[in-house]
Amino acid sequence: MILPIVAYGDPVLRKVATEIDADYPNLEKLISNMKETMYNASGVGIAAPQIGKAIRLFIIDASPFADDEDLTEKDREVLKNFNRVFINAKIIKEEGEEWVFSEGCLSIPDVREDVFRQPKITIEYQDESFNTHTETLDGLAARVFQHEYDHIDGILFTDKLSTLKKRLIKKKLENISKGKINADYRMRFPNAKKGK
Are the C-beta atoms of residues 55 and 17 closer than 8 Å to each other? Predict the structure, then answer.
């Protein structure tokens, strides 16, 4: 089932999400709905807070990035197969000199800005069977993970922008929270006027 994506301004996007265990109700169905919602919106990742649930769960399918001609063959191969569910994820270590990449977010449609992040991370997480994994990610795989991980900590990519950039997009963000935007997918707006 395609769920509405929560828009910028909703308090759930600012909550630090809670960990879950294997007894979380209807988890398999929730993961399936999140995947369907992400693909419907042409996203490469979606976090539970974006569908209104403050739990430490997100999904990534970075395979669309695998077509990027500027990437190395190794990076394209990694991205082609980077399709996973992350539960109770933790970043253990971040390394390297920050690099810039233009990011967007399904909760903030039509806003793309340059964000600096470290290129290499070591992570720990559980998969949908609650098996624990530890691995190192770099490049775009690390970036997509960091973006989604921020969501479960109540952080949005717009928080990482300079004061000037924030000022420049302030009106756009206000309009998004009021529902004054045409997204190509279902959304839930926190400050939309009723009866619109």
Answer: yes
